[in-house]
Amino acid sequence: MENNKIDEWQKQGKLIQSSLTEEMDKFFNSYQISNEEKKNVLLKAFSTHLDSMMLDFLCLLIDTHRFMGVSLILSSFNTLCNEAKKIKEGLVYSARPLTLEQVHQIEEAMENRIHSKCELTNRIDERLISGFKVVIDNEVVDSSMKNRIASMKSELIKGTR
């Protein structure tokens, strides 16, 4: 925040997270590969995309044998960045993967509803059949077919009494 680089570093953190694969995790967490080799690979891969402070941070994680926690660290960092920018994080559950456009449309609808900027992550829940369910903080908006069926069932049970 002091350097006014929250957006820049948040983008860099997301770039790192999206770039890490299972094979890269194995490489960076291997004790058979020297720290210098790991840092050289890291510098070759990211030197044009990350600023020096972010690269220094990643090298520090390698030197202290803490690189295995980089995903968790960057997730927490992203959450802190969003808190500083007053953005609420949430999940949108759907039976099938949503496109980025669909997620953005749902984000806009939720922003109007909660009067706050929000950032949603899509999770798959095949039990929903169709539609989606959004969870932000303690608020749940459920427009899934599963919820509609449960509501109809409840109404039918009430009607038979």
Structure write-up:
With 161 residues, this protein is an alpha+beta fold. It has helices at residues 6-19, 22-29, 35-46, 52-63, 70-84, 100-114, 145-160, and strands at residues 87-94, 117-124, 132-136, 139-142. It has a 4-stranded mixed β-sheet with strand order 2-1-3-4, sandwiched between helices. Helix 3 packs antiparallel against helix 4. It is elongated and about 75 Å long. The model has no long low-confidence stretch (mean pLDDT 88).
For the secondary structure, the number of strands is 4
Low-confidence stretches: none
Structural class: alpha+beta
> How much beta, percentage-wise?
15-25%
Q: Secondary-structure element order, as H and E?
A: HHHHHEHEEEH
Apparent shape: elongated
Radius of gyration: 21 Å
- The strands making up the biggest β-sheet line up spatially as 2-1-3-4
Count of alpha/pi helices: 7
Mean pLDDT: 88
Helix content: 55-70%
Sum up the structure in keywords.
16% strand, single chain, elongated, 7 helices, 161 residues
Topology:
Blueprint: H1 6-19, H2 22-29, H3 35-46, H4 52-63, H5 70-84, E1 87-94, H6 100-114, E2 117-124, E3 132-136, E4 139-142, H7 145-160
Parallel strand pairs: 1-2
Antiparallel strand pairs: 1-3, 3-4
Helix pairs in contact: 1-5, 3-4
Task: Give the gist of this structure.
It is built from 7 helices and 4 strands. The chain has helices spanning 6-19, 22-29, 35-46, 52-63, 70-84, 100-114, 145-160; strands at 87-94, 117-124, 132-136, 139-142.
